[in-house]
Amino acid sequence: MKLFIFIIFLSSFLHANVIINEIMFNPSGNDDFEWIELYNSGSNSIPLDGWKLKDGIKFSFDSQHEIEGDGYLVLARNSSDFSFAYPHVKCSGNFKGKLSNKGEKITLINSSGILADSVAYGVNGTWPRVAFNGGASLERISTESPADSMADWPPSHSSSAWYLVETTLKIKRPKIKLSTILKGNYTIDDFKITSINGTNNLFPNGDFESGIPPIKVSSSYIAELTEKSHSGKYALQIQSTKNVSRIQLKLPNVFNKNSKYKLSFWIKSNGKIDTLKLFVPGNKYEIIDLDRERKFGGTPGAANSNAKRNPRPAISSLEHLPFFPQPESQITVKAILGPAGTNANVKLFYKKGLTGEFVSVSMTANITNKNCFSADIPALSKNEYYDYYVIAEINNHFTRYPCEFDSPSTKRCYSLEIKNAPEIPVIAFWLNERKPGKRNFVSRNKYKICDVAIKNKIYRGVKVRYRGAHSFRYGIKKSYNLKFGKSMRPDLFEKGEYENAAVLNAMAFDYSFMREKLSFELFRREGVPASDNFYVRGYKNGSLRGLFLLTERVNGDFLEKKNLNGNGVIISPQNRKGFKPKACKIIYEDDGVDGLALLKKLYKDLVPIPKRNIAELTIRKNNLLTNFFINKLIEFTAVNVIIQKRDGIVANFYAYCDANQEKWEMIPWDHDFTWGLSINGFHLNDNSISPFYGSRAHKQAVRNYVSPINDALFWPETGTGSEITQDFRTQYLNTLTNIITKQLSSGKLEEFVDTIVTSIQYEAELEIKMRHPRANSKATFETAINNLKSSMNSREEYLLRESKKLISK
Length: 809
Fold this sequence. Notes:
Layout: H1 2-15, E1 18-24, E2 35-40, E3 46-47, E4 52-55, E5 59-60, E6 66-67, E7 71-76, H2 79-85, E8 92-93, E9 104-109, E10 115-121, H3 129-132, E11 138-139, E12 163-170, E13 175-180, E14 184-195, E15 215-217, E16 221-226, E17 235-240, E18 245-250, E19 260-269, E20 275-279, E21 286-289, E22 315-321, E23 331-337, E24 345-352, E25 359-362, E26 364-365, E27 372-377, E28 385-394, E29 397-401, E30 411-414, E31 426-431, E32 448-454, E33 457-466, H4 470-473, E34 480-484, E35 500-506, H5 512-525, E36 533-540, E37 543-554, H6 557-562, E38 572-576, E39 579-585, H7 595-604, H8 614-627, H9 630-642, E40 653-658, E41 663-668, E42 678-684, E43 689-692, H10 696-714, H11 726-743, H12 748-771, H13 778-790, H14 794-808
């Protein structure tokens, strides 16, 4: 047993020399150019037979894989594509899966099943955006220490990469000029000019294998061949000795002045030259930004461009306390460093507002925890903020947190005055500062960029706008739409691979409480991914705006996840002109009858009416009953109608009936015109059906046709829509009963409705706490609650009664 333990220990010690050294997870363009690099820091070769990569990607090494001492092994997703991009570097492959552009874990297991190395890039901390934007790799900065934080993985330098330049142009005179504005060297190779559809290179000796082609060089340039080529043996190296220099390549007289040609070549800079100017007579100057157009970066099979013997200190977290400092109160900034940070020198840099200057202060290590550093900074006045970051130094190796490559590259601390009911969570957003004299306000037609603070975290660059028409229709309170970028991954939402959006609903008691609760509960029961909805106090630009219900709303990207084109599922994404998210394309058929044609006929009858005309509506209603299966129409609209009046939950989700599988589906709906949606009206175009949105004609049709029918079905005491017969109403409600019973089975709807009634009183109590924090008299408190409850809209009360009637049938 002792011998066995010793062997395992020795094996683990030897295998510890093999580490994950470089990761190309987001090459520009094609994911097939992904690769990772292993490095053996020992002096002896190590066979990799039986080793495995798992988690983010999967690969099993066999007896043909061995890594030499002080050597590298590159593993590619597609070895053919890798060889094209890096022709002088050997690789193995192909690994299964692909590296996530948002971050994930890669694990290396040795032949004994023991962990050899593991890297979780992009998961915790602020990782360099240069690599995440594409083209640069993540390089391990030191092979002599663990690499478990973003400080250990800077992006590769651009000077290490060959870039592919491609353009289309006319050649009116046989010459091409290349100019630089900085001193330095650059190398070009595989210079190629072809016709638009051709492959024959019209530039002789473009691979430079036969020497230097006809070239005119200014006195500030030196042109010579080099063996450091992109392909083949030679490439053309140009050395610029002045800041402004150019070369001129002479072309053969084989070009048609009126034809277009494709020009391509590979270029590699020494790092000093980052901009090249390309000019062909008859065309505009073209600026080649080498940093922006990086194609195949990194240093596969070679020493990392960022390699250092001593690692930088790692900073795992940075925060300010309290999260919402009260005006004129002390603020403490705390930084946590990694194990090597006990001897670090740490400085905090902070500035006030947009125009302030950064001030530095030394941070002090905690007496009991030497890895924890803190510093106090001056108090803020009401609605002011600080931007701040820290720099840690050990042996002249520096780490900045947040990373200088990130955007934003600072953390932010806002002062917020919170007086009453601290037990209610807070959400606050601040619009980004504008130039003096410019108005800064939220609109309902266009998203504005803001900072959102919630659950002790500030999200920068969130989009916000008013949530459409009902925000203006119901009282002075306004509701908001918030859009969080894909990289933000708010903790309050599930971490899906799509951009998250939130609805911040103002709590007007006669409108929002019950409907939002009902809609959310239905979404959750239908399996739509949403973590929760909860009540918050909302602040805008430091001012209290009232009580809100915060609800997740997954945007249009979710449609792609639900899309199962073909196989009997009748839904697929469809792009709509004017906005990015996808609309729903539904082909609706019913037992061999062309339901789509019937819907088209229905649509023709839904033209706008200048004023409500009961007689005209009756004719259209009869046309509808004659030309469409009433049960299918009911199934298509019922779930929405039972919990809303016209513009309710459909502002968040789109409901449709799968005719093949005879079941309902709820899918998220999100675009900039949610205020114009109504599932109860149809818009047909090119074999698609979707709710009304956008144009005035569609909204007018909804107002004139849908609303009075809904009134007659569910709100008969209002006196509108009297042309709807009792038989029609009975059939509608009976069908609705069956649908609701199937969707919310086992008698849970009654319990569900009772929960909603209880929540209304709870929400009223929250509102009273905010508005009347000193109402400690129980009688006064109960009177205020009863007044609020009695002011609820009669239609909402009727909805509760009708829901219970459905259950009792």
